[in-house]
Each structure stands twice: as structure tokens, then as C-alpha cells.
User: What shape does this take?
Amino acid sequence: MPITEFASLQFKAARSLAEPDILALFQKLSAWQSECSGYPLLFFTNPKAPSEIHLITGWEDVETHETWILGERNQELLRVFTPFINILGMVHLDIDFERIPKDAESMTCLKFGEGVGVQVAKAIAGNFRWAEIGQNLQDGCHEEYIFAQLGYTAELNIEPTMYMELQRVHL
Assistant: This one.
């Protein structure tokens, strides 16, 4: 089963995808990483934090992604992106990337502590068009993430440690 990578980046200063040079770098990233992974690279923004951009993609496994991270092409991208972005974080999730709709124009991303994701999924059952739940695959880390497209706002008795409404960006 393929895994899902979820990475969060933040533009430095007043930089953005509106700049042709930065847009070209993200297009190169998309082409090179998709060529290596075999999966499309999806880009999202968070309207409440417009300097952030979030990447969601698939990999066959963590080791394949780690090989890409250390590889020459990715290292080149990291060098050229350094003046423009900061890496806020990245996780590997045990979500089958094939199950995430590639045509989703928006989604909600929720993060919870260990053992809460299934409980939350039951609480909001019927309130979403689709949802995928997965655990962070890092050793010793038991956070659970939910990517979903909610039909309407559901009441939760459990407070997420992270809540983001994401909007798709097409490069």
C-alpha cells in the first residue's frame, strides 16, 4: 500500500507563488518528484495562513521517499528553495495515497493525539463526502491525521491539535 507524505512550507518575507521564478521552482519540484515517486504532487494553501503551502503526495514506502530526500535532484531543489521558503514540517502517514481524491479542490486536515482519530471519524460519520485517517509512521510518534471533505461543519467533543481548511493550488 502506498503511503502519504504531508509537508508544510512557509514563504519567507513577502514571497509567494505569484512570482514567476518561484512558480517555476514549484513546477520543477512537481515534475521531478512525481517522476521519482510515480504519484502526482498536490499543492494546497491555508487561507487563514496565506504564507503557507502544503504538499500531499504518495510514495511506495518511507524508504523510497528517504532515498529521494537524499538524492541529487532533491538536494538541488532544497538549495534553490532556501532563499524563498522554510520547511515547517513533514510526516509520512499510513494513508493509501490512492484513496485521496486527486480532483479535490478543498479539504480539511485535522491532527489528533494517539487513538483519537477513529473516535472522531465515528463522531462525524455522515458529515463528510470522503475521509481518510492515518497515523504518523515516525517511530514513537502516534499522532493521527484526518484528511476529509466535510459536507458541513461537524461538532466535535475532541479538540484537534491542528485544524486547517486547505484550498487547492494548480500550478
In short: Residues 38 and 124 are 33 Å apart (CA to CA). The chain has a mean pLDDT of 90. The helical segments are 20-37, 62-70, 72-81, 117-123.
